[in-house]
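ugh ok fine here u go
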Amino acid sequence: MKIDKLKLTNYRNLEDLEVEPNSRLNLIFGPNGSGKTNFCEAIHFVSTGDNIKGSRQRELINWRSEYALVRLGLKNDDQVVVYLKEGEGKEIKINSKSGRQSELRSLVPTHAFVPEDLYISKGPPRRRRSLLNSHLSQLSDGYGHLLSEYNAELKKKNTLLKKDEINEDFLEVLSDRLVELGARITVERADYLRDLNQYLPEIYGRFAGTEQELNLSYSEDGLVEGSEEEIAELLSDKLERNRKKELERETSVVGPHRDKFEYLLDGKNLRTFGSQGELRTAVIATYLAYLELYEKRFDELPILVLDDILSELDRDRGEAFLENLPEEPQVFMTTATRSPSFRKLSGEFTVLKIAEGGIERQ
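structure:
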């Protein structure tokens, strides 16, 4: 899917902006604070309901206004409007009829890549879990619902563990349910990692210029090859061994919410032994491998939102990244400066400049 027209009204600092973007690549320039990220965030927000900056929804509305509006005209002639009013939440219209966020995820699929993502390989385990959850939620029809169901049961269990008097029967019911859901999540994650690792070594080699083999793997080998029943048994045994610890800590310490994943380069833990360049290249390779899997699954690619990525890459990796971007998707890429890496661009693209809340073609 591609955006034919985009209109923003009172979205953060962008009070009145309208543009017909390129169906291929859009380079968005402007000084820091001009609204480049806000422009891209608006596209991502329509699709996912999430803010790139992680702020509250109220902060999306310009401080001088009581409402914000994002209007998209799509290449297939669909019209999408997302309206935010202070104190009233979000209203979605698809072709003038009330819509749901779940419809927008498939109608306007987007995938964002921001500078902080380049540190996923070196950061805490929760960031790599979040990466897998994000990818799987877009690739698998039921994964997002499955994860939500698991988190709801996990919240119940953690609340119960904090009570002075614990209902042991209810605790066992919740634990059994978490084992069941957790095994299903683990199987989906393991399957995804197997698919991802079919592409990672070759893509990593393109950037690094080596034949080293990169993989993203579970830290616990026992969770990789087992069936759903076998994994459920492993989780149940592990839960029994950690029952006392959970009671002492008053929180659940076993399950997919604690899964750890590590990048391995020729079998060595990249987080421990890798250079900064290798760590960032591993994340770029993961991003591009995910796009390969997405295209294989849906026979199309999502709209790509790339916010200031080149600022965190050296010239060689920046050029390699641009050269290896897929040719088909619509791309919105922000940058504060005209990077030398742009000389590697080929094909059709549009340069857009954002300043003082407005936008113009260059």
